[in-house]
Amino acid sequence: MVSLLAHGALGAFDELIFVGVAVIFLVMMGISWIRSRSTPVQPPEATPATPTESAADDAHFPLE
Amino acid sequence: MLCAPSPAQAHGYLLRSIPDERATLERAPVRVQYWFSEGLEAEYSGVTVRDAAGTVIATGSVDPTNPTVMAARLPPNLPDGAYVVELRVAFASDGHVIFQSRVFFVGAAMANVAGVAASDLPVSLEIVWRALVLASSVLLFGVFALYSGVLLPAWGNPVYAAGGLPPRVMRRLSALVVVALVAAFAGNVLALLQQAMVFFNADLGRVIAQGLWGVVRAGTRFGDVWTGRMLLLALLALLFAASWRLRDQQPEIMRPTWAASAWIAALLLGTVSVSSHAAGALMLPWAAMLVNWTHTLGVGAWAGGVAALALVAPVALAAYTGEARRQALLAVLRRFSPLAVVALLVVVTTGVYSAAMWIRAPEQLATTYGGALVAKLAFVAILLGVGGLHFAALRPERFTRWSAPVARLRDFVPTLRLEALLVVVVLALTAVLSATPLPQPAFLDETIPPPSAAQTVGDWTAAVSVTPGEPGINSYDVVLTRGATGAAGQVVRVRVTDPMRDWRGEWLTAEDAGDGLYIATGDEMRRAGDWWMQVRVGDTQLAYAWTIQADPALAQAASPGIVNVLALAGVLVALGFAAYPRARRFYHRLDLRPATVTVALGALLATVGIVVAAMIGIQASQAQLETQISPPPAVVNTVLPDADSLARGAVLIEATCPAWRAGQASFDQFVQGLPRLRDEDVYRAVSEGWRELPPCETGLSASARWDIVNRVRAWEPVG
C-alpha cells in the first residue's frame, strides 16, 4: 500500500481510514457549499427551523 | 534559548529492555534490545553502547523488520564491568525525540555508574508552535462556525450580498481569518524547523542553511502530517482569497465558501489530534484520537466562537447604542448560547475521557504533565464560571437568585473580552500539556520474563529462551554449555513445530555469538498456543515445549477501567445530545406510514443478512483455505521429542520394527522422504507400513508409536 499519511501505532488501515475521513469531510464541504448557496439569508420573519430555535428567531436582528 | 535543539520525552514509552536497567549479568550479553510502544523513525534513532571508560563498543539501529524495536550487537566476550547504553529515540507518530541512557553490568554491579533518565519537561519552541497551530486552528474553526451558525442567522441581512453581513463585520471576520491563517502557517513552519532541529540535533541556522527541514518534511511521518496540514491551510487560504477577491463580481459565493470552510477547519483540527498524545494512546487508540478530535472541535466551537465573537461584537455594534445595541447582542448570544452549551458538554466529557486515559493514579498528578493539567483545569473552571454568568444573564427569569451579579452583565462585551482572554490562556496551557511528556503507566514497569527452559543431555546443557515470547517474530537464544563452560564453535540448529497442526518449520542454523550463545530468529510462532522446539547440536537433540500466551508479552495496551468506560459513555451521551435536534428534525421528515416502514425494515434486515452471510462466507473460505494448506492431522503427536522419547523410540524400533534398519532400501527411501511427510504419515507407517516398508509390530501403545515417530524424525536429513 502506498503511504500517504502515517500515524504511529494505529494499525495497518491508517492510510485508508484517514484518507476516507478527509474525503467524507470534503464531500460534506461540497454539500455545505451547495446548500448555503441555495438558501437565502434568513429574513426576520422567517419560520424557525426547529421548535427549539423559536426564541432565537424572535431575537433575529438584521444588522445594518 | 528557543533556537537550541532540546529533545524531550514523547508520547511513546519504552516497554521493555534486554538487559533490564541496572541488570547485573553473569554472562556478557551479545546484544541489547529495546521495545517501544510505537514505531520509530529509523533514520533518526540509534543505540550507542559505551564501556565504563566511555569508549564506544557498539552501535545499533531500528530493526528493519520491526520499527518498534531497536537493538545493537555487542562484541563477543565483553569483559566484566559497567556498560552504558545511550538511546536516541525518534517516535514516528509525532516526531518527539528522547535521549536517555541505561546501564548494565557484567560480573558485579558498580554503585557509581548510573544512566540518565529522559527529561519530562516540554520543549519551549515546541510549546510555541503547538500554541500557534492550536490557537489559529481553533480560531479558524470558531470564525467559520460562528459565521454560519450564529452571526448569519442572528444578524443576517439580505441587503448585503457579499456574505449577508455588513461590510464592517465581514472585514473584521476576514481580518481574523487572515491573522489565524498567518499564525497557522507560521506555527507550522516553526514546527518543521523545530522537528528538524531535534531530529538532527542541530541549531536553527544549520537546519535552514543545510535544508535539513526538507529531509524531515519528505522523509518522516511527522512530515506527512505536516504536509497534510499545509495543504488544508493552503486550501483554506485559496478559498478565502477567492471569496474576498470576487466579493464585488460574484458576491453570492462568499457565504457558501465561508460555510464550506468550516469543514476544512474541522479537518485542520483533526491534524492536530493526529499528532497529539492521543495518537500514542495505549488504550483504544482510535477511540482516543476520535475523542481528541471531538474535543478540539468542541473547543473550536466554544472557545474559538467566544474569541471571534468578542473581537467582532464591538465593530458590529458600533453603530448601535442603548436598547438597540442590547437587542442586537442578545440576538447573537441567544443563538450562540445553545451552541456553546452543547460544545461545552462535549469538551468536558471528552476532556474527562482523555484525562482519565493518562492520569490513572492520583500520584500522577504530581508529575509535570499532571501539574499542567491541573493548571489548565483551573483556568477552564474560571472560563466555565464566566460562561455560566453569561448563560444566566441571557435567562434572568430562570436565575432570579443571581439577579444582582447577572444584572451587571447587561453589556456583555467586557466579560466576553475576559472570556476571550481566558480562552487564550487555556489554549496556551493546552499547548504546554500537548508538549509535555505523559506520566509512565505503572503497568509498564511490570517485567514479564520471556519463556525459557534448560535441558541436559549427556554432557550438553542447552538453556533456551524465546524473546519476546509472543505471537510473531521471536528470537531463539540457545546458551550451550558443556560441563561448566560455554561451548562455542558448535553447529546449532533450531526448529519450531506446531504439534496440533502437525506443522514443522525449517531448520534454522543459529548464529554463533560466542561464549556458548547461539541466536536464531523466526516468525514461526504466529499464534498463541502450544509449540515445540527442537535443538540439534551435532547428533544430539533436545526438545522444548512452549506455551505462547495470547496476551502480548510486551504490554502495549492498557485495559479500560470503569472510569474510562463511564467517561466514554459520557462522551457518547454528549454527542447524542449534540445531535438530538438534527436527529429530531430528520425523524419528523421521515415517512412513517406502515408500508414504508415495513419496506425499510425489510431492506435493512436484508442488508444486514447479506453482510452477515458475506462475513460468514469469507471466514469459511479462509478456514477452508487454511485447512487445505495445513489440514488438521487425524492423529496428534502428544509426546515431546525429547531425549527420553528418542531413547525409548530407539529401543522400540530395535525390538518391534525389524525391517526399519539403515541400509534397507525401502527404509532409506522412507527416511529420505521424511521432510515431505507429516507426523501422522509416519505414525501410519508405523501402524500400517509405507510402500514396501512393513509396519512395526502390532499391539504397540499410541505413546510407544509416537516415540518411534520421534526417533525416526530425528533421522530426517537436515538441509
The low-pLDDT segments of chain B are 1-10
Overall pLDDT of chain B, averaged?
Answer: 86
Total number of strands of chain B: 19
What order do the strands of the largest sheet of chain B run in, or round the barrel if closed?
Answer: 1-3-6-5-4-7-8-2
Structural class of chain A: mainly alpha
Shape of chain B: elongated
- Work out the strand percent of chain B: 15-25%
What sequence of helices (H) and strands (E) makes up the elements of chain A?
HH
Cα Rg of chain A: 20 Å
Number of helices in the DSSP assignment of chain A: 2
Biggest interface, which chains? A-B, 39 and 62 residues
Helix content range of the residues of chain A, please?
40-55%
Structural class, from helix and strand content of chain B?
A: alpha+beta
Tell me, briefly, the overall form of chain A: elongated
In brief, what are we looking at here?
The complex is a heterodimer of chains A (64) and B (719). Chain A is mostly helical.
Describe the fold and architecture:
The complex is a heterodimer of chains A (64) and B (719). Chain A has 64 residues and is mostly helical. Chain A has two helices and no strands. The longest helix of chain A is centred in the middle third of the chain and has 25 residues, at 14-38. Mean pLDDT of chain A is 65; it is low at 44-57. Chain B has 719 residues and is an alpha+beta fold. Chain B is 50% helix and 17% strand. Chain B has 17 helices and 19 strands. Classes of the chains: A mainly alpha (64), B alpha+beta (719). At the A-B interface, α1 of A face α1, α5, α6, α7 and α8 of B.
